[in-house]
Amino acid sequence: MRSRANDAAILAGLFWCAGGIDLNQPQLDRVLLLITGAVLLGLSVRGHDQGPYVAWYAVIIGASERFSRIPFLDGSDVLRATQEALVNLLQGLDPYTVPLTSTIPPGSPLVYPPGELVWYLPAHLVFGDLTRVDTWAGILTTAAIAAVGARAGWERVALPAMLYATWGIGAFRAIDGSNDVSAAFMAVLGLALLVFADRSTRFGRVCFILSAIALGWAVAFKQFAVVLLPLVLRHLAVAGRDWRRYGLISLVTIGVFVLPFLLWDPGAFLSQQMATITFHQEVWGANLPALLQRYVEVDGLLPAFFAAEILVTLAALAIGLRARIPTIGVATLAACGIILIALLLAKWTTQPYFAYLGGLASMGLALVDRDARAGQNAGRADLAAPAS
What we know:
Shape: globular
Order of helices and strands: HHHHHHHHHHHHHHEHHHEH
Helix content: 55-70%
Number of helices: 18
Strand content: under 5%
Strand order of the largest sheet: 1-2
């Protein structure tokens, strides 16, 4: 059956091809993708269902967009700091107590939980280089969005997958030295696994456990996921799933990552983690204080903005946790909205944070009609399980 969303996704891919081909030295992959897109669109408008092919067309485009970019070595200092912390850890030193020399400015705190270090450890051990980890994470994020089409419907995932695949900022932030693309992938992976987590098969039960582990790891990777996990748990309760078991698995996962370092030096670890909201003192970035600073003096307003950042974010989360969240996608988009509130009220907000939200929002859009009940085709319209 023809889907206008599929047509729109193909057209977006064709737009990307037209804009991405080097006219002086046309790239083989992009010319072939242009031809492939034209064929897919032709078949689709003739009424042939191209859903699975469109979804994976987006994955290939996402790979071409990201692999064509050369890592930006003078970008963010996050991966430099991560690699330095890994070197310290492998030498038997507590990475949360040793001052970092590669950050800007030197001596900046290591504000990322241990799950971030574990994620990058294999690349450090095998290649001694972390610069392409987020490139792969961006491609895998597109693949995860595409893969859930097998359960949620290909016509629902094609356009979100293509939008993320062709998003230039998302691709740039996968090579600029930040870690937000990888952090988003871990959360997206947990959501994707939850789509396959039906109760009637061993595969589904394994996916349920792996989803809880992935979202626990996401929390232990970057603090943004602290907002996402409880909203997913709320949806699981509304959908009649075993949210307590899911939450316990996630908490155990977080504990496995965090407890060794917390016990190693509690004061150092906690102070470094709290620095995520206190370290940057200047007003800068995509937020309301920086916008107002263009017109008025905002220094006197900063305490009020900080209080609002904490209180309004917590209030929005509390409202979300009291709502009957009907689908996985709604839970995800609600988390994006709450995080956006915090980013807009903060005094320092960098663009990679929005790359994190972009990955989550793309998956949220793909799953906006998909609930977490056991039934293969369960949807929002017939969701009637009691909340717990």
